[in-house]
């Protein structure tokens, strides 16, 4: 018997709402009136204070980008499990059943699932390629930003959100 899965996956609007609330809170907390009233900020010059806010917003954007990419992976994995365990007749579902027979719930996102999507939905190859590039960014984040930021360093919160939105709009995903 496989693992029990929760229904705790986040939706893009939920992640965006959290990110926006956090940025608004940071902006409010780090406004000049708070700076003057909080001893923590007394030694900050206006430039240092502005940089602190920029750094905090950037960090929030990185966390939010990671959450978005994790939500996309969760959606792809749920789709895989539904297709692999239900008797769907389409070619992708048949391929997923073959993968499931070999690897069960431990199929690899990039090597197994995205390869199958590319094979059976060639119209999505460009989007899959962009998502694969974003996965390098996610791996860099997940492993403590060790090493050099991936060459595909074009990823920021807006581009990751847009990519995920396109993916959810264009992939014919099955939901639980």
Structure description:
This protein has 176 residues and is mainly α. The protein has one domain. It contains seven helices and no strands. The chain has helices at residues 12-29, 32-37, 46-85, 91-103, 109-120, 125-142, 157-170. Helix 3 packs across helix 6 (125-142). 16% of the residues are buried. The model has no long low-confidence stretch (mean pLDDT 89).
Describe the structure in brief.
With 176 residues, this protein is mainly alpha-helical. It contains 7 helices and no strands.
Give the arrangement of secondary structure elements.
Blueprint: H1 12-29, H2 32-37, H3 46-85, H4 91-103, H5 109-120, H6 125-142, H7 157-170
Number of domains: 1
Count of alpha/pi helices: 7
Largest sheet: none
Mean pLDDT, nearest integer? 89
Q: Can you count the beta strands?
A: 0
For this structure, the quaternary state is single chain
Stretches where pLDDT is under 50 for at least 5 consecutive residues are none
Work out the helicity level.
55-70%
Distance between the ends: 18 Å
C-alpha Rg (nearest Å): 20 Å
| Residue share in β-strands | under 5%
Shape: elongated
Order of helices and strands: HHHHHHH
Structural class: mainly alpha
